[in-house]
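pls design
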């Protein structure tokens, strides 16, 4: 059985070829001069991990409710379309499986996109310290894609193709010849939104409700916190040197990218695939108070990062006001990232403590059996 056998709807059999312009840049200065980036590179090397050993894949999950969440968390809950579901247990199970498959499939495809973008950064960025760090990120993103692919195939049993809005943003990011655009499109926009989505689900699955998903999300977020920091460092310095025209071009890209990221959250493919009234579902998802809150929360890292790197003109602020997320500019991004890293470390400590206690119990039982 191949990955294609798991797709809920047809996925392209041919690779997606994205034409890329720009130069591969060599540098002859190997010492580097950006200590913060070199420190981040060292951290990236120190924090490498293997999904096969760090994640407990023996944990069983219900493929129809992988995240162990109530019906109220389904985007169309309470709509006219939901009336079809209320007394149909099989359809309810289908929705649960398909929503998780769609959501984590977008994570998976984003990670492959991030792997390609970080490899692109290695190729095109001028400074050696940035090349060094982006090389560690490329490995991180490969590991994340490997992890999500295993989760979807072994535990959920279903995948979805890449969402068109995500595909458009990746296309724009990769096809641009300017070396900073993979940073801006991937590190700031796609990874910033992914981090918020991961964090939302990580916190929902804490407390033992879905330990496997909680482990995966926590460990991936530990890496992603470094990736966003990498983008902030490089772009903040570079954008301080650009002309107003050059900044305006990048702000236009940010605005369009943020609307694409917001609109991809509607899960249109799921409603189409399961035979729902798509127009009714989309209208409900667009106006649902729960989904409005969810969409807004997903910008809690992008907005302060965009402001921090210096893309804070009227066009950007107007777009964020329209989305209802302008007040997130004051969020403490450093504190959020530190919390992401601390939670992963705490999870490791808890697992080690549990292993010690289990060993002590087993030893006590063995002693009692021989007494």
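designed seq:
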């Amino acid at each position: 059985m191949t990955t294609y056998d798991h797709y809920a709807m047809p996925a392209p059999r041919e690779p997606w070829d994205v034409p890329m312009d720009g130069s591969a840049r060599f540098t002859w200065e190997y010492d580097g001069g950006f200590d913060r980036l070199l420190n981040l590179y060292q951290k990236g090397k120190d924090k490498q991990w293997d999904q096969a050993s760090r994640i407990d894949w023996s944990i069983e999950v219900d493929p129809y409710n992988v995240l162990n969440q109530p019906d109220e968390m389904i985007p169309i809950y309470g709509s006219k379309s939901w009336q079809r579901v209320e007394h149909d247990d099989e359809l309810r199970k289908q929705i649960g499986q398909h929503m998780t498959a769609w959501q984590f499939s977008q994570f998976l495809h984003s990670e492959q996109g991030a792997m390609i973008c970080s490899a692109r950064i290695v190729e095109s960025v001028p400074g050696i310290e940035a090349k060094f760090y982006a090389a560690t990120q490329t490995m991180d993103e490969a590991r994340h894609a490997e992890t999500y692919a295993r989760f979807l195939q072994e535990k959920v049993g279903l995948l979805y193709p890449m969402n068109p809005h995500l595909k458009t943003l990746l296309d724009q990011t990769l096809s641009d010849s300017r070396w900073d655009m993979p940073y801006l499109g991937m590190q700031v926009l796609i990874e910033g939104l992914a981090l918020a989505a991961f964090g939302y689900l990580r916190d929902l699955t804490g407390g033992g409700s879905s330990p496997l998903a909680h482990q995966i999300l926590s460990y991936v977020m530990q890496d992603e916190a470094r990736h966003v920091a990498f983008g902030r460092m490089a772009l903040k310095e570079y954008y301080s040197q650009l002309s107003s025209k050059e900044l305006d071009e990048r702000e236009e890209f940010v605005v369009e990218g943020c609307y694409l990221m917001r609109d991809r959250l509607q899960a249109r493919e799921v409603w189409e695939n399961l035979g729902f009234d798509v127009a009714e579902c989309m209208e409900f998802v667009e106006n649902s108070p729960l989904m409005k809150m969810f969409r807004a929360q997903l910008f809690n890292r992008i907005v302060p990062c965009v402001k921090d790197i210096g893309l804070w003109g009227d066009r950007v602020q107007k777009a964020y006001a329209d989305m209802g997320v302008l007040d997130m500019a004051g969020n403490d991004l450093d504190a959020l990232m530190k919390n992401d890293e601390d939670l992963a470390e705490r999870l490791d400590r808890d697992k080690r403590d549990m292993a010690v206690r289990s060993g002590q119990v087993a030893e006590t039982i063995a002693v009692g059996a021989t007494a």
